[in-house]
Amino acid sequence: MDNIWCFIIPIIVGLLSALLGYLLGREYRKDSEENNSDSELILELRSKINGLESDLNDCKKSRMSLEADLNACEQSKLGLASDLKLARESSSDASNLGMAASFAAGAVAENLIPFNGDAAKAVFGKKIKQDDLKIIEGIGPKIEGLFHNFDIKTWKALSEASIEKCQEVLNSGGERYRIHNPGTWPEQARLAYEGKWAELLKWQDELDGGKA
Q1: If we measure between CA atoms, which residue out of 56, 53, 33 comes closest to residue 45?
Q2: How many CB atoms lie within 10 A of CB 188?
Q3: Which range among 23-37, 45-59, 71-85, 151-165 shows the weakest confidence by mean pLDDT?
Q4: Best exposed site among 1, 40, 63, 80 by fewest CB in 10 Å?
């Protein structure tokens, strides 16, 4: 009987040892797999953190670049506003100068040939008023009024009017004025405007009611 237990006990111890070894080995593998799994998770998280930190750095750089561009835009805006103000002031000055020059040019053009009342009086023997259309042979106060209605109020304006225009002015006064012949009126007005009084008087002596 004692001999049997001498055989059984080693077998039981062997089996228990094998079972314990199996269990220990399984636990080791399990711990090893869990450790490997945790390591992979840690590495993955670290990779994500590194990626996020890289994105954050890129965002910071982009923000700094945008702030620099914004500052540059603000400076450019201030410069453009200053340039615009100067341009408006220059334009205003130029416009004022242009208006003054135009006014001066117009005044010079209108008075290119200055009126000499003394010279006119010396020839006609009476005082002559500048741009008095009645100095024209054939034009009286009524007809002068008709021309004024058409904004023909100066010798120069009448000298530049066509015969047809003069006839239109006469027609506007009715039948009694249509019989007048304005054929010489623009030329007479030109002589008056140019101050050729002697030539005008000589010609008028040859006219009869404005007709040669």
Answers
A1: 53
A2: 24
A3: 23-37
A4: 1
